[in-house]
Amino acid sequence: MLDAMEAATRTYLQAAVAGGSYLGWLAELPDGRVVGGGGVVICPWPGTPTDHQPRRVWILNIYTEPDHRRRGVARRILEAILAWCRDNGCRSVSLHASNQGRKLYESLGFKPTNEMRLMLP
């Protein structure tokens, strides 16, 4: 199951990075070792009354290596992503929060929404 997920993700990311609909950020140590990362998906979306941009931005894949957690790595990645969003005229950004990440996201101003999901067979 993980191999299938990895293959699908690789196919998606190769096309999305090349096409500009996925941007990623990495946190590196001075020796070049990556200890965290995150990204955004940018997709066409109709405007709303409060956001006239014809796109929507989702943050995803925020991750910090276990031995580097609780050191501000994820916060710095998120701050860089949010700065990019502001600099590029994004009026809103969304993410799906894990229980572990919820406190960080709330500290940066994220609020819960009414999103619902249905898994189809």
Task: Summarize the topology.
Layout (H helix, E strand, L loop, with lengths): L1 H18 L2 E7 L5 E11 L10 E10 L8 H15 L6 E2 L6 H6 L14
Parallel strand pairs: 3-4
Antiparallel strand pairs: 1-2, 2-3
Describe the protein's architecture and organization.
- The protein starts with a helix and ends in a 14-residue tail after the last helix.
- It has one domain: Gcn5-related N-acetyltransferase (GNAT) (Aminopeptidase).
- It has a four-stranded mixed beta sheet.
- With about 120 residues, it is an alpha+beta fold.
- The chain contains three helices and four strands, in the order αβββαβα.
Which labels suit this protein?
121 residues, alpha+beta, Aminopeptidase, four-stranded mixed beta sheet, globular
CATH superfamily: Gcn5-related N-acetyltransferase (GNAT)
Strand content: 15-25%
N-to-C order of helices and strands: HEEEHEH
Assigned CATH architecture: 3-Layer(aba) Sandwich
What is the CA-atom radius of gyration, in angstroms?
A: 16 Å
Please summarize what this structure is.
With 121 residues, the protein is an alpha+beta fold. It is built from 3 helices and 4 strands.
